[in-house]
Automatic annotation (TrEMBL):
Residues 24-34 have a biased composition (Low complexity). Residues 1-23 have a biased composition (Basic residues). It comes from Rhodopseudomonas thermotolerans. This is Uncharacterized protein. Residues 1-42 are annotated as: Disordered. It comes from the Bacteria.
């Protein structure tokens, strides 16, 4: 009988651990969504002629990509893709 009691206790403990993990994951998702809402999601915007001129100027000046992203309110990936399509180098280490 003692073995059965220990087995039940172990199962109960395992279930409670799973329940805690589920609650933790749900809390993490909620926190991530809240962060995104606070920060403001960057939406897709087309590059204007002025944006392209600015990007080329930053390319010549060898401005770091992270700084360009902050100044233009665009993602690093977006800037790199546009630079690739334009055939210009981007970043201070090329």
């Amino acid at each position: 009988m003692a073995k059965k009691a220990k087995a039940k206790t172990a199962k109960t403990a395992a279930k409670s651990k799973k329940a805690k993990k589920v609650v933790t994951k749900a809390a993490a998702k909620t926190a991530t969504k809240a962060k995104a809402a606070k920060k403001g999601k960057i939406t897709r915007r087309e590059y204007t002629k002025e944006d392209i001129k600015e990007l080329k100027a930053h390319s010549k000046a060898r401005t770091p990509v992270a700084e360009i992203a902050r100044l233009t309110n665009r993602t690093v990936g977006s800037l790199r893709q546009k630079a690739l399509k334009l055939g210009i180098g981007l970043g201070h280490q090329r």
